[in-house]
Queue: 3 jobs
Job 1
Amino acid sequence: MNVAFVVQRYGPDITGGSETLARAVAERLAAQMRITVLTTCARDYVTWRNELPAGPSQLNGVEVVRFPVEEERDLEAFNRLSEPLYARPHSEADELVWLRRQGPYAPRLVEAVEKGKREWDAVVFFTYLYHPTYFGMRAAPERSVLVPTAHDEPPLRFGIYDTLFASARAFGFCSVPEMELVKARFGLGDRPAAVTGIGVEMADPGDIEGFRIRHDIRGPYVLYAGRIDAGKGCEEMVDFYDRYRRDHAGAAELVLIGRLAMDEPRVPGVRYLGFLSEDEKRAALAGARAVVCPSPFESLSIVLLEGMAHGTPALASARSPVLKDHCVRSQGGLYYSCAAEFSEALDLLVREPVLRQALGDNGRRYVRESYRWDAVLARYRGLIEAVAG
């Protein structure tokens, strides 16, 4: 089968949940199908600046075709546009201006979807939010699979997305709460839909002690891995951690890994290690007392599942229905809704090895039973075959 994937950014050094999901699925399906990824030349989601060469290339068995972004984004100006729209009634024209400013504005990518749609058995669109998905699906709705990676946020209530979700022929969801959210907001009717999720490798943790030595980590630590951004709950996490450290003797360090999208925290006990290799990341996950997942807006949380695969419990924000659902279904983590709950839960995870072991065993079992790659790929194949006829 000949299948196109459309996603706003793509590559091994691109961090982001939907981008990581798209690449992981594309590379594995490429053993069974011809996969072409249509994406942009952007590496940075804040500005959408063109940093990668336009045109076709090969990456791990996948054909990748990049198109230039024609308008960089000024984030402050975009936020000034967005906040009034979220708070007051507005027109469809206002939303379409917002969508173009949101970006990445790559009209040649959309033209390629329109031109190539008869060549592909299916076109899989990742993330409902962005310009290439909205206009790409308008250009080629006939065999479209939408993987919305949606969570409850103001743009999900925009009227333009009624059209987008109505035109999809099938849906792949990251979690049960995401599917229920979309079903309640837009309805699914009798269209094919599945909780496709993502596969998680039960990988060897690697050299945990070497990781500690290389980064001079001498005591217990908890880990945040991903984009370090106020919008991902990181400012609140650091504030809550500061309270925990002041209230508890023998507090664990908070280690941050990933790309900075806010000022580096200057709080005692917080360590920023930068962007690590996959080997170092695995060792960091496996050696932590807990993986902290503070974002209130999640459709899956790959890092939570990766931590569980290594037997590391989660400490997750209860404001995210998806994160809370993972903790409840797996019995592999704790969740918090305020600073006091964060502090007490973190203290339990640090100083109670029996509890930590039980949660870790549960989490490992949950990932093994629910997030195997063979099952995930079978669900994607089912959706692709359903729209391909």
Job 2
Amino acid sequence: MLAVGGALFLAGFRQFHRDGTDAAAVRAFFTSNTFLALLFVAWGVGGATGGVGPVGQLLAGALTAGTFAWLWTRRPALDGVTSAPAAEADWVAARLGRAAEYVRDNAHRPSPSNSD
């Protein structure tokens, strides 16, 4: 979830970094709030369940990507300023494909132990 969310978080700020417009700032604001909310939910679920395993990680990554896609297509507004359109949609889709391949290829590896 952190890898997918972090990549999408950075993608959400690309347009703001390039343009610096009010619309891009609104999108960056909602992107950061979404990322933090998902991060805290994942942290709580992981702490309550002791970890979710590879399937849970795939589901969390898909949920994260879906939440960001939903947010970016809704174009939320802040004080009357509508957010910028998702200009990075193709860029994000390409990276998500690579991330899914990485998770699939590394799902068989055991998780590091915290019992040192």
Job 3
Amino acid sequence: MDQFDPYMAIMLRERATNPNVIIGGGDSVHPGPTGHTIMAWAILKGLGASALVSQAEIDSATKNVTAAEACQIQNLKFADGIISFDRLDDALPMPIEPPAEPALGLAPILNDLNRYELQITGLAAGAYELSIDGESAGKATAEELGRGWNIATEASPITKQAQEVLKLVVQKNNLFFNRWRDVQLYSFPEWAQTPEAESRRAAELARLDQQIAGNEAQIDNIRKPKSHHFELKPQAH
């Protein structure tokens, strides 16, 4: 996968307006969280990763679910101007760590890789507020909802769960890096190559492997999507 040319194209585009701009880290070499996210976007797109996480479409005029792709919609209700339902997705939206959020303004990452959509047609004109499990999850107009609202990065219990998965993945990666760099890769000097030293090294590798396996089990458990209760109501003036 070619991640260099898309990255360079973005950098040159940004430098056309600001010659001193640096994307990512503290210099032109180290990409940092923003650069890493752009690189991941280029690689995943090149590998053919799906753009859609899931999509729910509801027709408020007929009061029916008209489409549910990669998710299940249950308990749809219309009462006192509020539309409510329960949504269970097949997968979580892709988490974006806060230091990497500038990448979203540099490349079409959300559109290409992270479309977690809510579409509600037939609404009366105006602004609406969405809550998920009782927590505010953003506001949108009837027009935006009619086109399809991507809520992949809106603060909600769903994105919090995705961020927890990301946190555990980073912890596991750091453990594996420590195992490889500090224990496995390290070459003992000849004078230290004793049976005792080798056995201590093997024991440390086994200890880290156990920690890594524990992290993998946590990731496997927390990554599973849960059913969430959605409510959409007209925004109070």
